[in-house]
Amino acid sequence: MKPAQIDFGTGAQKYLPTDAQSRRDLPDRVPVYVFRMTTDPRYPVGKFHRLEMYTDATRAAAIATLAALPVALRTAVAGLNESQISTPYREGGWTVRQVIHHLADSHANAYIRTRFTLTADKPTIMPYPENVWAELADAKSAPIEGSLAMLDGMHARWVILLNARPTADFARAFVHPEHGERTLDWMVEMYGWHSRHHTAHITELRKAKGW
Ligand code: NI
User: Fold this and answer.
1) Taking the chain, what is the end-to-end CA distance rounded to the nearest angstrom?
2) Bridge-partner residues for 13, per DSSP?
3) Contact status, residue 15 vs residue 35, Cβ threshold 8 Å
4) Region for residue 172 given its phi and psi (left: phi exceeds 0; alpha: psi -120 to 50; beta: otherwise)
């Protein structure tokens, strides 16, 4: 089944209903998308909601979102000057630069965790302190192109890898030392949301500033 069209980076989130009643009303394996906006600047596409079940359609949509991120992010920052890139996306929040470097750091971890999950038996992954990493010298001041290029390369390979795996592999698990066991399906869904989440920080900032 083809994934539903992705409305990416506009501040709108399309997602499968997660509450039991609305899911019971769904025909089997037919994605029904609901339009949702929030006014909390921290969560422009809403908070991450874990799906109660994964289907070929939800998986394909999440992988398509990962495939779309590099171009969506380059589009989101196109034409911004250095002063705009150094502007926090909200009061007290990360700058656009930190958001982009955070995406590279975060998705580098996810890319590596995917490889361990596919090649080891329930590997325990290493968490990283994202707020501390966002304050490291390069995350604070390096040109964004380095991280945009990392995301180009990592996402291209990540998507080729995910598309090459049989459905059963998405039930493979890894262990987060604090949060417990998670599946590859969860990870793909989570980082699809994470892609939209941070891209929307930038597109919403541009809307608010009229940039
Ligand atoms: Ni994040």
Assistant:
1) 38
2) 36
3) no
4) beta
Q: What residues in the chain have per-residue pLDDT under 70?
A: 1-38
Count Cβ neighbours within 10 Å for each residue of 143-167 and write b for 16 or more, e otherwise.
Answer: ebeebbebbeebbeebbeebeeeee
Distance from Cα 19 to the centre of ligand 1, integer Å: 25
Q: What is the residue whose two structure tokens read 């920052």?
A: 77
Which residue is associated with the tokens 């002063």?
83
Dist. CA 104 → ligand 1 center (Å): 10
Distance 80 CA to ligand 1 centre (A): 21
Does this model's pTM top 0.85? no
169, with CB counted inside 10 A (0-12, 13-18, 19+), is middle
